[in-house]
Amino acid sequence: MADQNLDALDTDDVAALLGVSDRQVRNYVKDKGLPCKDDIRGRRFSWPAVLEWYILFRLEKVGSRGNPDPDPATDQGESMDAALCRKTVAEADLKELELATKRGQVVAVADVQRTMANLSKAMQTKILSMPTKLSARLVGLKEREQIRHVLDREARQLCHDLSGIHAKPTETERALEAE
User: What is the residue-averaged pLDDT of the chain?
Assistant: First the structure.
């Protein structure tokens, strides 16, 4: 891009120079008024005009601390009624979560991770034991159909065994059973 005309940049060039996506550049043009010209080659940008527009655009955003849509929860102008309402809703949500946890409808991420690790280990053990089991059965077999039959039967047995693997109880489940 060093030898490129800075008065005839395309969308990808502007995106690269501004450090944003080409979609963001298109949104700037459509919604924010980023200056451009349409010609037979498509949309073209003049870098000096783009840079000036972008600096003004960023300065406007800094006026709202860089956030175009300030969070109403952090707005200093929030009324006491609105804050109380927000607090009441948060407390109700927390109580619902506690109730769902007691009913066993919520699972802790750590419990799911532990369960998945245990299941993965059990599956790994079953799959890795296959060659040992099959090596003795396959020795001496010369017919392709016999070998395929042994492999097919073992694969089906493995699938059946894997479907019956149950997760070890998690700490949460043990606590619920103890109550």
Answer: 82
**Is the distance from CB of 43 to CB of 37 less than 8 angstroms?**
yes
State the pTM of this model: 0.39
Bridging pattern class, strands 37-39 and 42-44: antiparallel
SS3 10: coil
Output phi, psi for 14, to 5 deg. Answer: -65, -40
- Residue 3: CB partners within 8 Å, gap ≥ 6? none
* Cα(158)–Cα(119) distance, integer angstroms: 14
Annotated domain spans of the chain: 11-62, 72-102, 109-178
Between CA 104 and CA 106 the distance in angstroms is 6
Q: Which residue has the tokens 């060093």?
A: 2
pLDDT tens-digit map of 22-68 = 899 999 999 989 999 988 888 999 999 999 999 888 888 776 555 55
Q: How far is Cα 106 from Cα 93, in angstroms, rounded to an integer?
A: 13
